[in-house]
Amino acid sequence: MLSIKNLHASIDGKKILNGINLEVKPGEVHAIMGPNGSGKSTLASVLAGREIFKVTEGEILFNGKNIFDLNPEERAKEGLFLSFQYPIEIPGVSMVNFMRTAVNEHHKYHNIEPLSAQDFLKLMRDKKKLVEIDSRLTNRSVNEGFSGGEKKKNEIFQMAMLEPKLAILDETDSGLDIDALRVVANGVNKLKTSDNSTIVITHYQRLLDYIVPDVVHILYDGKIVKTGGKELALVLEDKGYDWIKNGKY
Amino acid sequence: MGNERNKITDKLVALYQDNLKDLSKDSSNFINTKREIAIEYFSKTGIPTTKNENYKYTDLAPVFANGYTKFFKPQKFSIELNKAFQCQVPNLDTYTVLFSNGWFYEQNLTQNNLPEGVILQSFQKASKEHPELVEKYYSKLAKSDDDGVVALNTAFAQDGFFLYVPKNTIIDKPIQVINLLRSEKDLMVTQRNLVVLDENSSAKLIICDHALSPCRFLTNAVTEVSVGENAIFDYYNIENQHNLTTQLSSVYIRQKKNSNVLTNTLSLHGKLIRNNISVLLDDEGCESNLFGLFLADKDQHIDNYTFIDHAKPNCKSNELYKGILDDEATGGFNGKIVVRQDAQKTQALQSNKNILLTDNAEMNTKPQLEIYADDVKCSHGATIGQIDEEALFYLRARGINEKEARMMLMFAFAHEILKKIRVDSLDVQLIDLVESRLRGEFSKCDFCNYNVIK
Question: Residue B351: its chain A contacts at CB < 8 A?
Answer without folding.
Answer: none
